[in-house]
Amino acid sequence: xxxxxxxxxxxxxxxxxxxxxxASGFPFSSYTLTWYRQRSGEDREWVAWIGATDGGPDYPDSxxxxxxxxxxxxxxxxxxxxxxxxxxxxxxxYCQAAGLKTYRGQGIQVTVSS
Length: 114
Known about the structure:
By secondary structure, the chain is mainly beta. The protein has no helices and ten strands. Strands 2, 4, 5, 8, 9 and 10 form a six-stranded mixed beta sheet that branches. A hairpin with a 3-residue loop joins β8 and β9. The protein is globular, with a radius of gyration of 13 Å. The chain starts with a strand and ends with a strand.
């Protein structure tokens, strides 16, 4: 199983980023996909999920209206579009695939700062 995450980096408040997570080694289209984040010194929290065939997308109130998750099963890739970013969105972001087993990417840093 392999994940390749990309799209993170430094952005100013109010800016946008699009994270990508390309997966391989398991039946991607059958898996529920979730983006998590972990701020320094805090527990991991989910920020978006989308079901395999139905269900979702859904978001916690902290990001609703600003973040959007999507998936491309032909490319085995899940995306997280993040708009109107705030300093409190600074965290390491992870993609996770859950089905018969659960797999997680290595994480990618997003920093929102002026």
